[in-house]
Amino acid sequence: MANHKSSIKRIRSNNSKRLANRYYAKTMRNALRHPSDGKQGRSNCKTPERGFFD
Predict the structure, then answer these.
(1) Backbone torsions φ then ψ of 53, nearest 5 degrees
(2) In the chain, at which end, N or C, are there fewer CB atoms within 10 A of the end residue's CB?
(3) How far is CA 40 from CA 4, 23, 34, 49, in A?
(4) pLDDT per residue over 8-47, tens digit each?
(5) How far is CA 10 from CA 4, 41, 42, 50, 54, in A?
(6) Cα angle for residues 24, 29, 32 (degrees, 5° grid)
């Protein structure tokens, strides 16, 4: 368990960034795996609920 205030904040921000990065990495893998899907556009793709710097 973290003892300092800055380390507690760092853990919290790392978790939110990790979740956002997982989403973007997964969509990139899927885009590379299925390149034909990109021709028609992706208007129905889901975005993460939280912003990048939350």
Answers:
(1) -105, 25
(2) N
(3) 50, 21, 12, 24
(4) 999 999 998 998 899 988 888 888 888 775 555 555 556 5
(5) 10, 36, 34, 17, 12
(6) 125
